[in-house]
Design a protein that fits this description.
With about 210 residues, this protein is α+β, with helices and mostly antiparallel strands. The chain contains 9 helices and 4 strands. A 4-stranded mixed β-sheet has the order 2-1-3-4, with helices on both faces. Helix 1 packs antiparallel against helix 5, helix 4 crosses helix 7 and helix 4 crosses helix 8. The chain starts with a strand and ends in a 9-residue tail after the last helix. About 35% of the residues are buried.
Length: about 210
């Protein structure tokens, strides 16, 4: 049976975008099962002591921009540091992933397009028309999924993901949870790979 990873993310997060391709490479190399768990970051931050970007000290904001440039080069990507339509309300875009899963569909082709749409081509992922177009381009029933993404059923799953994240010790995006061990940030993907390669038991914080 394939090992499972819980993948917490939001399209709002540049770090999730930066880490998505290497994460998928790791998933494919190890034949992992992925539980996609998009989560609303504002709620997650507020419950775990984090601050939204605008409320962080200017030194932290400046350093974030430096780090984005470093990792842009490191991962061989080309993206905007301040996309035209960012920040945006990610509920609907994240919800399309949940709607695809609820329909038994693979959200991955949509996710690849959605990440690029935010950070490279500067599309507005709060716009249902844009989301429908992206899902259609991924071979998914865009109109149907976008409509379902706005439903009470999907909102309930989205909220449950937030609760699951808190219970798992997740406090940011992206986070990869393997056997209860949290790997926070795209810069921990190599450590996640080490854990998979070694087959070691999960690390735990001393109580």
């Amino acid at each position: 049976m394939a090992r499972q990873i819980d993948y917490y993310f939001s399209f709002q997060s540049p770090w999730a975008y930066i880490g998505h391709a290497p994460f998928r490479q790791l998933v494919e190399a190890h034949g992992l099962g992925v539980q996609y768990k998009p989560v609303l970051l504002t709620g997650l931050f507020s419950e775990t002591g984090g601050l939204p970007l605008a409320k962080r000290h200017p030194a932290r904001q400046r350093y974030r921009l430096v780090e984005l440039q470093r990792w842009r080069d490191k991962r061989g990507l080309d993206f905007k540091l301040w996309p035209k339509h960012w920040p945006f309300d990610a509920r609907l875009a994240d919800g399309v992933v949940l709607a695809a899963l609820a329909a038994g569909l693979d959200p991955e082709p949509y996710m690849q397009r959605a990440y690029s749409a935010v950070w490279q081509t500067e599309r507005d992922l709060a716009d249902p028309v844009v989301l429908t177009e992206l899902a259609d381009a991924a071979g998914l029933p865009g109109e149907k999924l976008v409509a379902h993404a706005a439903s009470d059923q999907i909102r309930a799953v989205y909220e449950q993901n937030r609760r699951d994240a808190i219970a798992a010790g997740v406090f940011g995006s992206p986070a990869y949870v393997l056997d209860g061990e949290v790997f926070w940030g795209q810069d921990r993907i190599e450590l996640l790979g080490d854990a998979l390669n070694s087959g070691r038991a999960p690390y735990r914080a001393p109580v």
